[in-house]
Amino acid sequence: MLLGLSAALAATPLLAVPPQVREARLAEARLDNGLRVVVGSIPGSQEVALAVAYGAGSAFEEDGRGGLAHLVEHLSFHGTGELGSRDWSREAPLLAEIEELAEASVGEARKGEEADFAALAADRRRLAELVARQRALAIPQGLRLALTECGASRHTASTARDFVVYQTLLAPGALECALAVEARRMEGRSLRGFFDEQGEVLAELAEHARDPAVALVEAAARETWPGHPYGRGNWGEARQIRLLTPGDAEAFYRRLYDPANAVVAVVGDVGAEEALRAVGAAFAAIAAAAPPPRIAAVPPAAGNPTAAPTDRLVSLAGPGDGAWIGVGWRWPPRRSPDLPALRVLSAVLEARLRGALADGPSPLAAELDVQEWAAGGAAGGLTLIRARVRRAADLAAALSVVDRQLADLRRGPVAGAELEAARRRTVGGVQRVLGQPALLARELAVFALQTGRGESLTDLPGLLSSVDAGDVERAARLYLDPAQLIRIQLLPGG
Question: 20 to 30 A Cα–Cα from 223, which one of 78, 86, 207, 483?
Answer without folding.
Answer: 207
